[in-house]
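Pasting two entries for a bug report.
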Amino acid sequence: MDRVQKIAAGSIAVGLLVLGLKFLAWRLTGSIALYSDALESIVNVVTAVVALLAVRTSAKPADASHPYGHGKVEYFSAVIVGVLIVVAALLILNEAWHGVRDPRPLDASPEGLLVNGLASIVNGAWCWVLIHRGRRLRSPALVADGRHLLTDVVSSVSVLLGVLLATATGWNSLDPALAALVALNVLWSGWQLMRDSVGGLMDSAVPDALLGRIRTLISANAEGAIEAHDLRTRHAGPMTFVEFHLVVPGDMTVSTAHDICDRLERCIRKEVEPAHITIHVEPEEKAKHSGIIVL
């Protein structure tokens, strides 16, 4: 099991711990807002399981049926997570509606609030691990899980403060109103997650900053060639695909052109790893004079 899979498995354990703490906090207080927070934690556990399955599948090497690897499965998992987030938001809105129709007094016991606060601290720490390590390991599934947990942390802190305010003021209707705000926040998180994941499925190009660095590397390390054009990039899970045409003098030997390609691949991989690089070599009459000029 590699590092990504170990982190994904850790998310399941953390999710179960937080789920138990939040349901205990709800039982101690009877708060609809805290109940909505606990409902969202069920989704956290499910999404952690989905993320683990996704990273295990994406780690499989390329085969005859999938010559470009299995990296895109992580985007599918992120879409599934987004759908589950929307389902959780609808469940929370349903509870909030019942709370508005039938307000109930709160029992903001210190024990219940402390338990919920502890769950938020655990979630916050693990959220940082997921986003930080997910970006370093270039795992969309881990980053998606971490971003979802971040919205959970924000919601939990807001709910905790709101329950304290409702208890202090006696405004029992504030409890279901907070639950509704949690639901709206969760919906927004689900929309952003699905939007980004669909972009990956649609082969969106790498960010402009990274694309600029790749262009600079090609320009500075293609000595002997004339130009490069038709540069295309895309992500598939942790893998970055880079393709471009390299124009060389017509009398250059195949061996010399191959050496230039090898040099370019080494330089690009130092900046982008893992990467799948395809270079199509063309004679100088194919130059477009509008691509990347070789320094």
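Entry 2 (this is the one that rendered wrong in the viewer):
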Amino acid sequence: MPHPTDTTTALDTTPLTDAEVLLLRRDFPALKQQVNGHELIYLDSGATSQKPASVLDAERSFYEHDNSAVHRGAHTLAANATELFENARATVARFVGARENEIVWTSNATEGLNLIAYGMSNASIGRGGADAARFVLREGDEIVTTEGEHHANLVPWQELAARTGATLRHIPVDDDGALRMDEAVRMIGSRTKLVAFTHVSNVTGVINPVEELVRLAHDGGALVVLDACQSAPHRVLDLAALDVDFAVFSGHKMLAPTGIGVLYGRSELLDALPPFLTGGSMITTVTLDSSGYLPAPQRFEAGTQKVSQAIALAAAIDYLTAVGVDRIEAWESHLGARLVEGFSALPGVRVLGPGVGVHRAGLASVDVDGVHAHDVGQFLDDRGIAVRVGHHCAQPLHRRFGVTASTRASAYLYNTTADVDAVIDGMGAVRSFFGVAS
């Protein structure tokens, strides 16, 4: 088992084992506690992940030894902080197959998506000049997203359409939550200016056909925005190879702290996109009447930056790299299949999305007949099992499945088969406990 600080470990597609996972779990302080008299079983990593000690130590070390504002000042601490900050950017860039100037720090993926949307809105009112012309939207133009999106990849495009007069369209999903690619082919055309979609559904675990969607969009001259929140933490991600124009993901879902996110953009696009947040540190020259802006990524990083969080994100990536992202992906695929098989065998439990035998990410959401999702979550919590309940910020997708809420179990590199079996066993007892079992 490689030590999590060894970033030179060769890639290996062999799944993790339960024994290895139990060793990894020792690195996570939050997983060493009991909840309601039971050892904690954390199956809510799709919402936010737990943090290993090495990540916590990296952030603490910065504050104890190098705390200073970055890109400002000439003293030693400022130089050290700036070096750590930019080294973290380089680490993220390598992790996702990007160049350093293509990585913009944000507070989270939601901010990154809004940054793109508001940048396009600014271009549409004439900001950015000729270089920003490809971002301009007018009446008759179309933005295409999907029925399966997280609200963060839907609401900003609704607002952009409202501000510019563009039309927002949605690729539907089938009964298993897979995109209707026949509809995508019909929908994406010469009027399409932007196609935004998730890589992996946070509700169904469906892995969308990125390459095919990118080809459809680019054939018509449209830009592509990829929501990688549920893929970057769990699978090898090469954004340059995928040929997407923009992508976003959040650190807190991949072992890092809250308050740090990443926007990826092709360098020539970032340099042309008008900024969203303005102020100090993103300018060249300022007069009382006008300002000039730096190239990307600094043009999008106004104000005091998220220095300790960026450094901690780099430490999280070092940890994931040492364990082996390929191995993590293979392990989670195994756990996801086990979840679906176990849930599908339970009377009165309906799995949302693809059924047994269909490749998916390591999560599954279910509707329990006769029991509200919040009651299911409370019942499992009494057993020390943490899951997500509600609509998971994806109301349209739940509406498509005819439910208002579901219960989601999402696994990560610190979950064992015993964890999965425990949530299946707990789910099997829910309907009897609430007196609705037939």
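Dev reply: Rendering is fixed now. As a check, the viewer should reflect this: The first helix runs from residue 18 to 25.
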